[in-house]
Amino acid sequence: MAALPRPRKRRPERRARPDPRARPVGNARAVTGEAAPVAVIGAGFSGTLVALQLARHLPPHRPILLCERSGAFGPGLAYTSGHPDHLLNVRAANMSPFPEAPSHFQDWLDRQPAGEAGQRHLAAPGSFASRALYGRYLGELLEAEVAACPGRLQRIHAQVTCLRPAEGGFALDFADGSTRFATACVLAIGNLPAAGTCTPLVRYDPWATTTTTGLRPDIPVLIIGTGLTMIDLAVEIFARGVPGPVVALSRHGLLPHAHAPAPACPPIAFSDTERRSALALLTRLRAEVAAQDGNWRGVVDAIRPMTQTLWQDMPLPERTRFLRHLRTFWDIHRHRMAPSVAAMVESMRQSGFLQVLRGRVLDIAEDGELAEVSWQPRRAATSRSLIVQRVIVATGVEKAVRTSDRLLRGLLDLGVARLDVLGMGLDVTAELRLLNARGRPVDGLWALGPIVRGVFWECTAVPDIRAQAVQVARAVAETLE
Ligand SMILES: Cc1cc2nc3c(=O)[nH]c(=O)nc-3n(C[C@H](O)[C@H](O)[C@H](O)COP(=O)(O)OP(=O)(O)OC[C@H]3O[C@@H](n4cnc5c(N)ncnc54)[C@H](O)[C@@H]3O)c2cc1C
């Protein structure tokens, strides 16, 4: 997330204190004689998928604890939105959570009764379902697994505040003061909440239900960021009947492209020189697009299977360069909008409801019910100011290095985990085992999903996470054999 000037009147953030309940816990297997459980922390897409895969890969007597602080098991941050126009940005046919059953989600969709919320986007095969439907689908998968073997997969509605090594496994401390033991643990804590402290006028929580409520009809709203989250917000504000305008501001003022049919391109064989330089990679990609008559969608899709290795082959300074200069361009080509959403965006822009600016925010001064935002247009010498009723920060998920997340900070403080070299998330091995402060793999501890994106870069979308979930479940099963 790009650094932003702090709004004035910000309250000081509290520092996480060492957990006073931290105490050794005995091995539950020794105490009860039953198999000790495997714990999964977080029940968004990643945690849900790991739990389902663990249920397949572990012997039936091994309990699985799925811990989720929100109480919603399955949807996580991405698939909680109930708005019917918040659509998946991947075709339904590519959204199966199971690598070996590619049409699983599409088949489920086809069985849903006509007229369901979100169904209006399902006119043709290969179209884009609503994220709410996908969240419901994940919840149902989990429900079915729980019912199939009562007591084995346990959903625990609680926040894990501390995870610490204990004899034969880990102790999990919960926010309600209780502690459970697990013989192995998977961290699926996902997209970290923004570190900024919300005020009534400046919101760092773009996905919270109250972020777009209570808006006045006569004053603009500013959204910082012009990616898919901004588009969600603009669509939502428009649907609330707020006349706008919604002003979206980012460094380049670039919006995601739309999905469109594109012929598949052959895989690209990059040279060693290209693999070691962000600029050389870009030059090669441009040449490929030219050779494919401008079919950039085909080229971007062709390198999807190798983006993780391309990322890992790049030396650290090149990865940093990519993040600073090329990331925006990659994101708008790679994470594309559903065509019907793109049509909505176009119409909102044409009507003047959505206005896009290029530049950066210099200062936000809150004054009663309004905020004065001073901003610098790109390549302009002088700054300008905007009076808005709300500022919504939608610049992407938080970097782990900035987070105040209690569990994560505790893991780092205990030396059980360390950050990846870019500070984006947690450091793991290629097998997704957590690396401790000394760079050694921690026995019995894995992580997957967006929290390991610094190591793999492309590991936040369903096709990536579903593969990681199988990988982790197999590794846990092998370890416990
Ligand atoms: C808005 C949005 C839309 C997306 N749309 C698509 C799409 O269309 N297609 C696609 O392929 N990908 C999409 N993605 C990307 C991807 O699918 C998600 O990032 C993915 O769902 C990540 O899931 P997750 O479980 O790792 O993280 P999250 O969804 O963030 O879930 C993590 C969960 O862990 C819980 N948690 C965290 N800490 C604790 C704790 N200490 N104790 C207990 N619980 C805890 C949280 O409450 C949360 O529910 C989207 C992402 C976002 C943000």
TrEMBL record:
Comp. bias intervals (Basic residues): 1-14
The organism sits in which domain of life? Bacteria
Residue span of region Disordered = 1-30
Q: Read off the Pfam families from this record.
A: NAD_binding_9
**Record-linked SUPFAM superfamilies:** FAD/NAD(P)-binding domain
The residues covered by the FAD-dependent urate hydroxylase HpyO/Asp monooxygenase CreE-like FAD/NAD(P)-binding domain are 39-191
Instruction: Tell me the InterPro entries matching this sequence.
Output: FAD/NAD-bd_sf, HpyO/CreE_NAD-binding, L-asp_N-monooxygenase_NS-form
Q: What is this protein called?
A: Pyridine nucleotide-disulfide oxidoreductase
Q: Which organism is it from?
A: Rhodovastum atsumiense
Which taxonomic lineage does the organism of this UniProt entry have? Answer: Bacteria, Pseudomonadati, Pseudomonadota, Alphaproteobacteria, Acetobacterales
